[in-house]
Specification:
This protein is α/β, with parallel strands linked by helices. It folds into 2 domains: about 150 residues, Rossmann fold (3-Layer(aba) Sandwich); about 80 residues, no CATH class. The chain contains 9 helices and 10 strands. A 6-stranded mixed β-sheet has the order 6-7-8-3-9-10, sandwiched between helices. Strands 2-1-4-5 form a 4-stranded antiparallel β-sheet, covered by helices on one side. Strand 9 and strand 10 form a beta hairpin. Helix 3 crosses helix 4. The two termini are about 30 Å apart. The C terminus is likely disordered.
Length: about 250
């Protein structure tokens, strides 16, 4: 199996609490892995360790064989790890278009000066508008990000991630807080990315119908430890998941 992203014995302790406990896992291009588990299982913390928002107590993170463990979050992004957050992470006073333009500009290695380059780089503006069309936000491109409804802010965050064109896409509950009508837009985008067989996708998601539909593989975290890893139907049916994640009588 070709490996793009790998964690080896990844661990973080907060005082006496082990939030992520020696998790070793490898992820391949062209696959979508869902990361599930009960609240407090360590899913978002595991994401934070991979993307660099938190520094591990022990263990390593590799991308295409390169050890990223000592790198900051921005450096990991430049290497190819893209992260969409559970809470929106936008420039609130900039317009929708300006938010995505900055991401396109960063991807083109042109720096983040908003005003200095755009008149000379119309093709990058065009690229930003193409991405906004994919997330159904082109008609809102001149609206300030702070003025968007929550669901549209989530779509904008996905647009920014797409504009960065990472090798690894990390989605932390991308449909959280969205209306029923808005969810299909995000799921279609994830399907589109999955169709690009060179991309690796990690998805933290509580909606098991979404997991069943999109995931090639499920890993389960419980009390910070990796307790199950495999094909979705088998993992969902396993006793450890039924007990630890779904619970007695829980909806699946």
């Amino acid at each position: 199996m070709s490996v793009s992203l790998e964690t080896r014995n990844l661990t973080i302790r907060f005082g006496g609490h082990v939030a992520v406990d020696s998790v070793s896992c490898a992820f391949a291009p062209g696959t979508l892995t869902a990361i599930v588990g009960p609240n407090g299982a360590g899913k978002t913390t595991y994401f934070n360790l991979i993307s660099g928002q938190l520094r591990a107590t022990a263990g390593q993170v590799f991308l295409h064989g390169e050890d990223l463990s000592a790198m900051s979050a921005p450096l990991r992004t430049r290497r190819g790890i893209g992260r969409a957050f559970q809470l929106t992470n936008l420039f609130p006073n900039l317009t929708v278009l300006e938010n995505v333009r900055l991401a396109v500009q960063s991807r083109a290695r042109l720096g983040l000066n908003l005003w200095s380059v755009w008149s000379n780089h119309r093709e990058l503006v065009g690229k930003a508008e193409e991405v906004l069309e994919l997330v159904a936000l082109k008609d809102r491109r001149h609206v300030a990000a702070a003025a968007l409804a929550h669901g549209d802010q989530r779509k904008l965050e996905v647009a920014i991630l797409m504009a960065l064109e990472p090798d690894v896409f990390m989605f932390d509950e991308p449909t959280a807080g969205m209306s029923v009508d808005e969810v299909p837009v995000i799921l279609d985008l994830v399907r589109r990315l999955k169709g690009e067989r060179d991309k690796t996708i990690l998805l933290v998601e509580h909606k098991m119908d979404v997991v069943r539909e999109l995931a090639d593989r499920i890993i389960v975290l419980h009390n910070g430890a990796l307790v199950a890893d495999g094909e979705p139907a088998a993992v969902i049916a396993s006793p450890v998941v039924q007990e630890a994640y779904l619970g007695v009588g829980a909806q699946a």
